[in-house]
Specification:
The chain is α/β, with parallel strands linked by helices. Helices cover 37% and strands 23% of the residues. The protein contains 6 helices and 7 strands, in the order E-H-E-E-E-H-E-E-H-E-H-H-H. The protein has a 7-stranded mixed β-sheet with strand order 2-3-4-1-5-7-6, with helices on both faces. A hairpin with a 3-residue loop joins strand 3 and strand 4. It is globular, with a radius of gyration of 15 Å. It holds the Pfam family Pept_tRNA_hydro. This is Peptidyl-tRNA hydrolase.
Length: 194
């Protein structure tokens, strides 16, 4: 029997937001699609999707990028979950995380939204917060910059050099979470770097 997972990269639509910190979730989903040479197409759930496999014939992955703004991501995620018949425990939400240092990836299931309005809206639309999350660290803003402005800023030149590695790590985390489970993914990605 085929097991289907929905992997949603949170972000904002439009070219002006593409390389901002708030869109790192969508960049991770782009990385997963590129690894499989898949292209996104429009879906009636107000999202772009690419259907692919982790294990052909056994584990299907639907990669998704909502066309809505971050704070109203729940509608498209809920609609995709219904369309593909995916329960919350098989919905992986990939998003930026202020409270994690840049270039760090953490995973968890459930818990609070930590002030992340996209995660809050997804939990509200699904009627549960018990879904896996791949949290991609963007760090806190320097000085007194408002976090709301910081997340909408493009990555700095220094961060852009590290970004491909961060996206690759986060994509690895998604694959490991789906393939081997949360604990295996946490053991690999939460361990201190050598």
């Amino acid at each position: 029997m085929v097991q289907t997972w929905l992997v949603v990269g949170l972000g904002n639509p439009g070219p002006q937001y593409e390389l901002t910190r708030h869109n790192v979730g969508q960049l991770v989903v782009d990385e997963l699609a590129e690894r499989r040479r898949e292209r996104f197409s429009s879906h009636k759930a107000n999202a772009r999707v690419a259907e692919t496999w982790l294990r052909p014939g056994a584990v299907k992955i639907v990669l998704a990028k909502p066309n809505s703004y971050m704070n109203v991501s729940g509608g498209p995620v809920s609609a995709l979950a219904k369309y593909y018949g995916v329960d919350a425990e098989h919905i992986v939400v990939v998003h930026d995380e202020l409270d994690i240092p840049f270039d760090t990836v953490k995973l968890k299931v459930g818990g609070g939204h930590g002030g992340h309005n996209g995660v809050r809206d997804v939990a509200k639309a699904l009627g549960t917060a018990d879904f896996p999350r791949v949290r991609v660290g963007i760090g806190r803003p320097p000085g007194r910059q408002d976090p709301a402005d910081w997340v909408l800023d493009p990555f700095s030149a220094a961060d852009r050099k590290q970004l491909p590695l961060l996206l690759s790590d986060a994509a690895d985390a998604v694959e490991l979470l789906i393939g081997d489970g949360l604990v295996a993914a946490q053991q690999k990605h939460h361990a201190p770097r050598a």
